[in-house]
Here is the input.
Amino acid sequence: MSNEQKSSGSPIVGIIIGAILMVGGTYLSLNAKALGVGGIQETLEGQGIPLDFGKTIGTIGVFLILFPVIKSFFIKPLQDAIQERNSDLERTFTEAENLRTEMERMKSDYDRRLAESEANAREQIQSQIREAQNLRSSLMAEAATRADALVQQATAEIEAEKQKVLVELRTHVVDLALAAAEKVVGENMDSERNRRLVDDYINSVEVVA
Here is the structure.
């Protein structure tokens, strides 16, 4: 026999037993003296214990009859409501725990993303600083190279200008020397040979100096 058959048969047995007890108790209460129970009840009543066996048995029978009704209409719905409430509470607790777990996961993900963003920002800043330093070094090197080139160009131009002035000065000195010689000699001394002689003399003077 299954549990459902036992549970469905138990109320019927209880009701039958209750009906028997109720009828038997009523009969016993009405015929207590005839059944030899009246003397015992009178003795108990004399001792201060007013007890009617028939009514007591009948009352137990009434309870046995009413208990399945009370259980079906009051206790069972109350148990179902309590069970449903417990299920709702367990479901609410489960959802709250799941929500807490999800929030912790989201917080961990947010912290991880924030840390990655900060690391990327630091890396970008450091990269830009390195680029700025490299650009500064490159510009300084380029400026130094251009400055050296300008200095060399200026030095070359000064040297060229100096040589030009020296050539012009030497030519002028040769012209003056030849002019002076013409005045002394009274002849035209402006010839290629004379110019070379004067120029060689100037060179020898510069070497000695």
